[in-house]
Amino acid sequence: MNQERIKSLVEVGIFASMALVLDLIANTWGFVNGGSISIAMLPIFVVAFRRGLKNGLIAGLLLGGLQILVTRTYFLVPLQFFLDYIAAFIVIGFAGFFPKAITKPIHLVLGIVVATFARLLAASWAGIAYWSEYIPDGIADIDRVFGTAFSSTLITPTLMTWVGSFVYNAAYLIPSAILCIIIGLVLQKRGILSYHLIAE
Amino acid sequence: MKSIVIGQYIPGTSFLYKIDPRTKMIAILFLLVSVFLLKEIWQLVVGALLVVLIFMLGKLSIKRIMRGLRPIMILLIFTFIFQLLFNQTGNPLLPVEFTILTISLVSVGSAVVWTVLWRLIRKVFPYRFILLLIYIAGLYAIFYYLGYGPLLADRVYFQIYDEAVLMSVFVIIRLMIVLTLSTLLTLTTKPTDLTQGMESLMRPLKLIGVQSEEFALIISISLRYIPTILDEANKIMLAQASRGADFSEGKLKDKIKQVISLLVPMFIIAFKRSEDLADAMESRNFVPGKPRTRIHELRFGRWDIVTVCFVVVVFSLSLGLLLW
User: Fold this and answer.
1) Hey, are the CB atoms on A29 and B154 less than 8 Å from each other?
2) Hey, which of A12, B45, B190, B286 would disulfide with B281, CB 3.0 to 4.6 Å?
């Protein structure tokens, strides 16, 4: 029992740092300019699949914490900071709801999709939190800015910030998730995800 | 690869480095709250001067900190323009309101055609910048003159109000203060000290079942292994490059193959490494959750007293200004 606990602890720590390293070197691969698309989530998914939900959540939290400690982070509004660097990373551990993913392809895909969607929601909410703090007060008077025809439609500045934030985050999270799924499936096929787990 | 710098920490000896990490964390938290309590521009300007003073006394280069803000500049500019254009409180500053655009089905359609045309010509026309200018001018002309058909939005006005100018300046100053202040912690404290401070601050959470020691241990393991794993990733990438892999070029499919050629050894080495470490810890009789001893203990000093006094004064002043 004790031995398993120590193993989980150590694995969480080492895989979180691997996630950070992948994030750092992803910039040099250039899948897309700026390198926002990265497979940094993959080690966290793997820990969550192997060691369960709780350890997955801790690994996610740890990746967020490492981002704060090691890389440049931006504090704009308290809620935005919490969502961007803590909540958005913790929820990656939701992949731990699918422990069978170490051997079954469908579970792996489901786990990554669920976790990425949760992260997308948290990250978008962070964007909304920022814009709702800094959106002008007088904007309620939309007729004066966009004319009457505009206000009769459903498009409002609030909706625009919501959609904008969602699209912005989806633009790098969805490709990242697809990449993680492809590489995750390859690793699963080669039996790496169940490394030293099944034999015991 | 070599340009990757780990950590924000800048070595130094000023008083900022002598404050205990626990004091520093709580102090910065309270200072951030104080900034959000301020509601007037002059108060924020005083706050900004205070932050500059802290950085100067702490012998930190403000230029360097500003350079760190570059990636977020675009967001700040957006926020500024957003406030300036859409905030409609106070008195108008311009004599008349301009109608600048009319958005209708016809104009949107023409704009799409114009954009496609521009993308096509761009491939053969040598002077791209001139073409870009022509494109923007054409776009403006389309929206100004082609306002026929069902309207999606009419009369986009352009007017600037005095409150909007004040508000946009207010917002930018506040963001700058908050952004620079929040980096102070990671700039002047080693990650290991921060971890230790965090563990110490989280200790009361044990009552609700949070194992702060365990968490701090995992953070220390992570921090310790970042350079090792980075080094290893470098080695694997070089080894794969010697086999002909190219990590920065090629088609998407080739790139994914190359990433897999990096990840497979990385994962296996990571599994082996965690097992070795777990074995080593267990053989030294490590029990998760039990108290540990450290080589360096955190201690409060006289700078902590100064910091606490400073923060108490600043916080009560800003609270007073809010209530007054």
Assistant:
1) no
2) B286
